[in-house]
């Protein structure tokens, strides 16, 4: 760990979690198609990183082996599916349910590492996975069975959020070994670049326009990139150099809580009791899984 940073790592981490929590609210405030919002979020995040990579990391980019480049591209495809599915889920279900379910990616990372990478799953990890899955079922079907739900099609939105979580797990698994050989800026430049191209194909396939949006939408697109993108995830990566990875990963469990509180304040969206109880169970399962996997 790097000692004596100019900025308090814990304060920076709190700022990053708050910035990431605002992402769902910005998506809900946008009236543009969800794939367009996802495209511009990643594009506006990639442009400054790409400029830095071209300026300072050209040699590093040139040294990336073709096999590693292929896996980085695969990671970018998974990230694009994650953003597309999650942004769309926010149109159909509550912010609380969507953000909690998509944040369950550590559970799917543990399962994927066991199935694909032959990594061992301890009893504690298995217990955490079981608890999280139980919470997901409770959250997804509790509101449906009670006849009270937030969102036009909560089951559909929850399913999209879970697809986003699985895709995010694929993004993590694809990059798990690459980050040991490729430095951060070149890696994310390649991944985000591929992600932008895939999201662009989604937008064009759906027939959505890329221009003609009012100034308010462009401000939201920039806000998504500057807030959750650069200020959120970039600062989280910086914090990893000064804090234990377990502290950073567990702190991300604050995102669903922060997003839910912001949804109450700015969208007047109060989660149902089934969503609250199921969400708490999911967060407990994620915590147990992440703590056992650290």
UniProtKB/TrEMBL annotation:
The keyword Transmembrane applies. This is EamA family transporter. Keywords: Membrane, Transmembrane, Transmembrane helix. One of its GO terms (cellular component) is membrane. InterPro entries: EamA_dom, EmrE-like. It comes from Halorubrum ezzemoulense (Halorubrum chaoviator). Residues 13-140, 156-289 form the EamA domain. The keyword Endoplasmic reticulum does not apply. Coiled coil: none annotated. Pfam families: EamA. The chain crosses the membrane at residues 38-57, 69-87, 93-117, 129-149, 155-173, 185-206, 218-240, 247-268, 274-292.
């Amino acid at each position: 760990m790097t000692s004596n940073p100019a900025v308090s790592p814990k304060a920076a981490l709190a700022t990053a979690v708050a910035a990431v929590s605002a992402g769902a609210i910005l998506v809900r405030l946008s009236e543009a198609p969800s794939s367009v919002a996802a495209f511009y979020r990643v594009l506006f995040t990639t442009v400054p990183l790409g400029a830095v990579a071209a300026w300072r990391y050209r040699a590093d980019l040139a040294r990336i082996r073709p096999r590693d480049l292929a896996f980085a591209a695969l990671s970018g495809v998974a990230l694009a599916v994650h953003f597309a599915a999650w942004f769309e889920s926010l149109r159909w279900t509550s912010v609380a349910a969507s953000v909690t379910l998509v944040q369950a990616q550590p559970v799917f990372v543990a399962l994927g590492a066991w199935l694909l990478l032959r990594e061992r799953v301890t009893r504690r990890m298995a217990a955490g996975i079981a608890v999280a899955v139980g919470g997901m079922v409770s959250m997804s079907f509790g509101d449906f069975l009670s006849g009270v739900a937030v969102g036009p099609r909560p089951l559909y939105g929850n399913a999209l959020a879970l697809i986003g979580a699985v895709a995010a797990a694929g993004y993590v698994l694809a990059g798990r070994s690459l980050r040991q050989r490729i430095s951060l800026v070149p890696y994310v430049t390649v991944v985000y670049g591929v992600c932008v191209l895939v999201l662009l194909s989604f937008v064009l396939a759906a027939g959505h326009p890329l221009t003609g949006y009012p100034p308010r939408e462009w401000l939201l697109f920039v806000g998504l990139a500057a807030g959750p993108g650069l200020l959120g995830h970039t600062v989280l990566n910086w914090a990893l150099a000064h804090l234990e990875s377990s502290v950073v990963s567990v702190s991300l469990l604050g995102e669903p809580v922060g997003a839910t509180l912001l949804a109450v304040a700015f969208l007047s969206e109060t989660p149902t009791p089934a969503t609250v109880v199921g969400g708490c169970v999911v967060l407990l399962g994620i915590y147990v899984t992440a703590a056992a996997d650290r």
